[in-house]
Amino acid sequence: MDTYDILIVGAGPAGTCAALRLLSLGYRVAMAEREPFPRPQIGESLSPGIRNIFDYLGAAALLQEDYCLHQLPAQVIWQTQHAEMQPRGHGVMTDRSRLDKALLDLAVANGLVLYQPAKYEHSSYDGTHWQVHVRSTAGALTLSATFLLDARGRKGIRQHQRWQTAPPMVGVWGYTSADNMPGATCVEAVPDGWLWGSPLYDGRYRILAFTDHQFVRQPSILSHFHQLLHASQLFRPAGQFSSLQSCNVFSYVHREPWHHNRIQLGEAAFAIDPLSSTGVEKAMRMSLQAVIAIHTIFQKNTPAIAQEFFESRLAASVASHMRWTSQYYADAWPANTHPFWKTRAVLPFSGQAVSPFTAKVEHSLATYHPPVSSPHKKINIQDTLQQLWHKKLCLSPALSFKQTLCVVNDCVEKKTAIYHPNLEQEMAFLGNHDILPLIQIAQQSDTFGQLILSWKQLVPADMAVPMVLQLWDKQLLCER
Length: 480
Ligand SMILES: Cc1cc2nc3c(=O)[nH]c(=O)nc-3n(C[C@H](O)[C@H](O)[C@H](O)COP(=O)(O)OP(=O)(O)OC[C@H]3O[C@@H](n4cnc5c(N)ncnc54)[C@H](O)[C@@H]3O)c2cc1C
Description:
31% of the residues lie in helices and 29% in strands. With 480 residues, it is α+β, with helices and mostly antiparallel strands. The relative contact order is 0.11. The strands form six sheets. Strands 1, 2, 8, 9, 10, 11, 17 and 18 form an eight-stranded mixed sheet that branches. The N and C termini lie far apart (69 Å). The model has no long low-confidence stretch (mean pLDDT 92). The longest helix is centred in the middle third of the chain and has 29 residues, at 303-331. It folds into three domains: 2-67 and 93-161 and 258-301, 3-Layer(bba) Sandwich (FAD/NAD(P)-binding domain); 162-250, D-Amino Acid Oxidase, Chain A, domain 2; 381-479, Enolase-like, domain 1.
């Protein structure tokens, strides 16, 4: 039996992102993927944040290949029924089948042991290792690993393991010639759903319509698709379509994404409403968090902290996406009048958690409050410094201290952070420096000038002034 540190099942962006990062940390990693690549895959509009992730993985060159389109402008009909032109965006339109293959090839070149085509069948845990049974063309195979990462996409989660985070939809898509459509990404709200379209690298234009389950019965998908197009302004000229396909679109999170060193990744952990086009970015980010958690267990043997870190980041990400999408639906022009929009413009907040993990998501939803924005000041550093230098200072009475989980050298650590209503989240570092000693000095300083001179002993001299002004601007440091 072959034994690995980590076995990953599924070679979508979630699986390969985890593989690339784990390999760079020196682990022995294997992967089982059931399909030969390239395989068709939906989800090719990548949000701008993807660029940082590809840079970090040493995969930036893959986004420069000929199957990627950059800087597409956008036409949007959403809050009103008038088309709004938006500037060129920083996202990427790609061919997922080719991009996923290129990422997988890179992982193999970096040392990934790949079983493909090899289908995961079942697994068992003996208290220290997972035994995973896969079936390849050569026959049945058992692989053993300390961690099992399930990145099988939607196939990696069963109905009873899902906690629904938004009403289900149906997605219907087809291709027309790019000559029929503007050379831009188009998004439009129509009474019974919304439409999204984009040019592709191969001269075609893809249009995707999202609508309610109840409006679509299999034989009538085509006519319903045309009705949605007909109700729109931007997509009406689309003309003839080819390769019409449809799928159910569920938004959910796994009730127990971490169980005995088995971690759910990507869409095997959570699927978000496609409205934000951030599914791939979120899946890859979550894989990076999982790798930090695994590395923490191997390096520091603190499994409780590692699991808490992974689950709390996942819960916060799911809750923030739920808030964002419901608000975006509420902002659309048909939101007050049409059932498709009304049901999505509210948070499905039940107050009845079905598992300890979903309780974390509900807690994150219930306790969220938007940061109180401080009055925006345009700071002229020299003038402000002169004005503040001799002023007496104190810490805001609203400032409090909180234990938080931070990442230091790719491992999770507990640290004391500061919290204040003007901050979006607690702050453990200021300009890469532990915040606690800096705040202790602020507590003992009489004036802003004195504080700046003291901080110059601890941080690079040119950083002390901007760091003090940052906390003053947020009203964490006040004038007495
Ligand atoms: C209609 C629709 C439109 C979308 N549009 C966008 C978009 O524009 N932008 C965006 O960012 N996201 C979009 N998404 C979401 C995006 O597709 C997903 O977030 C992303 O593909 C998730 O990646 P993944 O690695 O988790 O899973 P996948 O990419 O699905 O990869 C899972 C892999 O696991 C393999 N596998 C499955 N079962 C087994 C098994 N038993 N054994 C071995 N291997 C197995 C599969 O073959 C597959 O290769 C969309 C989703 C939908 C439904």
